[in-house]
Amino acid sequence: PRSTLFPYTTLFRSDCTGCSSCANVCPAKDKALKMVPLEDSLKTEEANWEYAMKLPVRDMSAHPLCKPATVKGSQFRQPLFEFSGACAGCGETPYVKLITQLFGDRMVVANATGCSSIYGGSAPTCPYTKNAEGHGPAWANSLFEDNAEYGYGMNLAYKARKEKLVADVNAALAAGADGAIKEALSDWLANNNTADGSKKAAEAVKAALPAAIKAAKGELKEALKAIKDSEDVLVKKSIWIFGGDGWAYDIGYGGLDHVLASGEDVNVLVVDTEVYSNTGGQSSKSTPTGSVAKFAASGKRTKKKDLGMMAMSYGYVYVAQVAMGANQSQVLKAIAEAEAYPGPSLIIAYATCINHGIDMSNGQAEMKKAVEAGYWQLYRYNPELAEQGKNPFTLDSKDPTGNYQEFISGETRYKSLAKTHPEIAQQLFERAEIEAKQRLETYKAKAGK
Predict the structure, then answer these.
(1) Nearest to 257 by CA among 213, 313, 329, 176
(2) If you average pLDDT over residues 246-253, what whole number do you get?
(3) Is 93 in contact with 16 (CB distance < 8 Å)?
(4) pTM exceeds 0.85 for this model
């Protein structure tokens, strides 16, 4: 599709799985998208696709309507995650797509085994791609049980290389670097810990290095060559650890806890479907009371683990709980704050799943219902606010306006229990609602409400 607002800007879109979710959730009065049979449009749209892909891409981030920190502005940025092959209407992939739009050109991803590793590394193609400059996410998959440590190791490796680069830059300046290279290296030293600052400074360093190396001698030449060898570290890396609730709440929790406790600058995204989605829908510690899953065929009897509260107990971990369909602005704000936070961050994202037994074409609407019913809460915990003397906990969702029991009765994972075990279903459902209310009261207390 081509933008009518910016004639020379291609508006990038993700691939279509035929789920209708994007068309259903479109907020425009006159819908921007319309679902039609593939056979009716393949020939014309194939030509349009080829044309759109050849349009020049312009950096519109400076335009007032395209600021990345806004919902609309973020969507003018190219997704570096496409054609994933996930289930139609998957609730996980929109979060991954958004993160690549914001940080994809400097991302490094450690991905736990699970749905996100299957659609993230599906053969014969890889959905993680690159922009016109050849920059994109560096992605790798690890096991269920050690993915957090895997990402932690990636971070330590880049941290060590960064420290070596800083030493080489200081050595070059001490050895008499002058002119353009001195200015570029000095600017990089001052701005290497920020994304935009390091990008701008990195370009200046790369531009000045060839001539400086050619003219230099002795120790200065060796230092400049070492900087040249480490050019890929000049731009601040955005380290991400992806995985589902089976990994984060269960099998990989010990490692996740260790990494969050380390204080290192890593970002964790947990796509929470409340069940082991990829392996057939087994119950996890994220599965709520009363939900039916494999190994909990008669309804889970214990309440959902509160991963966010456990992480908040450290006091120095950024934690957010989000649901894209309920509040897009809050999702964007949480992701931006988490990535900018100079320490460990954890984003727990509610993701609708085919295992829930819902209409997957309305997954975003289902997320909204979950928040309105008090089933899922939205919040952000930012330790930097505490340093400013403010309450670090912000409760972003309002008091429930929907009916909890009505909400869960619309999902097969709950209503099937009422059919197979009616004698215990209502008891478990009532307990689940009480637990959700208690969780909300705990959050309200933390928020000072």
Answers:
(1) 313
(2) 96
(3) no
(4) yes
